[in-house]
């Protein structure tokens, strides 16, 4: 698979996954039900694991879609995809403080940050592998 085709596929997957997350947020904000909500109730710390995986996976595909473009903060690379997801997560989590059916929770933010950090690392490893295969 060519690099351009892989990047386009990653953009498509990232956009689709973002739409899925928007749908989940809509359901949560309106008090709607979903099989996903039922599933996480049966998993210990399911809500926190869900936050970590949802936003971690979004970070992973966003980083790959943006071809792991990054800038340096000191010696630490910050991926544009991770920064965009972080801004989205922070604004979404803060908005929960204004929605009666939702709860603003710092532990959710920590779970989000863990997912974003972990999956940023995984996207870095994946991008190195992709680049190595291109050579």
TrEMBL record:
Origin: domain of life: Bacteria
Keyword entries, A-Z: Membrane, Transmembrane, Transmembrane helix
Spans traversing the lipid bilayer: 9-29, 49-66, 78-100, 106-125
Coiled coil: none
Name of this protein: Trypsin
